[in-house]
Amino acid sequence: MNVQRFLAPTSREAMAKARSVFGDSAVILSSRSTGGGFEVVATAEENLDQIAAQRLTPRPQAVSEAPAVGGRRSLQERAELQRPVLGNSQSSVEQDTETLAMSTLSFQDYVRERMLRKRREALGQSAQAPVAAQPRQREAVVQPRSVLPTPDHNRPQQAASRSPQAGSGAPSAVEARLTGELNALKDMIEERFNTLSWLGNSRQNPIQSNLMLKLIRSGYSPAVARAVLERMPPELSAADAFKWTQEVLTRNLKTADASSSLCDEGGVYALMGATGVGKTTTAAKLAAQCVKAYGANSVGLITLDTYRVAGYEQLRSYGRMLGVVAHLAHDAAALQDLLNLLSNKRMVIIDTAGLSQNDPRIADMLELLASPKVKKLLVLNAGSHGDTLDDVFNAYKNADLYGVILSKLDEAPKLGPALDTLIRHQAMLRGVCTGQRVPEDWQRPDAASLVRLSMGTTAKSAYDPQSSELGLFFSQPVTNPVTLDAWHV
């Protein structure tokens, strides 16, 4: 039996010495603090069975009664005192801790020692049991270390009854996955063939090919261009085909009724959008129109912009020019109090803070404006890229938008991306801002004029495709094809 004693200034160093001798299989038998440092008695894990067998062997009485040398007990005496009484499985954790002089660093060693003690108790009980019961006792000892379940004579029949279900379930999952992949492959092949066929017909039809190039150069997406041109009657001339295309785009661009404006409708309006799109200036334009039509007492101004420097001061300056008091709301309670205070106003305009379409605070702002009486207006920069406008719409898709306001039309090189986004998302256009002047640079939306302005672009751009490059725009399948109203084609 290889049992060694290790002495070191600290418990960590003593345990390190034990592990350096016995490796990872080292088992701490006992540990205590001495005058010369910390003492650890350890052995290898493969010696545990030999130690347990020696513990079961009767010891001479003289060994336990031998006097200690120099006032201290020998290693055998201390091991004998730490040996638990056979059959006593009620030893408490407190007694084990006091016996082993356990510290926080030796907790893992204490756990090993306790598991060893339980195994010795089980071995002692099996030694005292009859010979006929020994196999069952030994099985009970080995079972905690085994991953096999308790034997059951009915289990083979249960496994046999479950095996057809398991065998039938696995192929069904694989079959469903393969079916989905085949359907996706089929759709892709059909879309590719339809695209190639459509491109071939476009090359044979110069009018359709020229209109397709015109739409792409105007900023419209290939999805909208294809959805419009594949419904064009083939017998139209070049002029009639161009006019027909403009009429289709006009009918599919939703705009508010020209006979009424936002100030005529009245209510509570909240202007939302990204940073720098002109929400505060748009709020001032709407307030100026209402003041001009119904007086200064008919308008209420509220701002939630507490992030931007001088954001409240800008709206307050516009309010002084119009004779309207601008209020600041820091939270939901203040906003509700101000809405109750201004409930007698014909029109209440809420200016919100500019947030990026990827800002997680958009959800908090939408929750703040969750009242059903608040009409949410999304302000979009007409000069933004089409992908940027799509991201903005996706960020506010849960906002229950009342409408959209296009700003900075005077700065937009192309109106095609903005109109294309409004058509694909079926959003209602409520107003158009064409400059910074208040309130002169505000116009009611006219779908025909906007489409005609977008298609009348003659400036050349480095991003304009050539006729030979149109195949690149339609080489990939259209994942979300545009559905046009049949009555508007």
Question: Main traits of this protein?
Answer:
single chain; 489 residues; alpha/beta; three-stranded antiparallel β-sheet; elongated
Task: Characterise this structure.
- The protein has about 500 residues and is an alpha/beta fold.
- The protein has an 8-stranded mixed sheet with strand order 6-5-7-4-8-9-10-11, sandwiched between helices. A 3-stranded antiparallel sheet has the order 1-3-2.
- Strand 9, helix 18 and strand 10 form a beta-alpha-beta unit.
- The N and C termini lie far apart (about 95 Å).
- Pfam families: SRP54.
- It comes from Hydrogenophaga defluvii.
- Necessary for flagellar biosynthesis. May be involved in translocation of the flagellum.
- This is Flagellar biosynthesis protein FlhF.
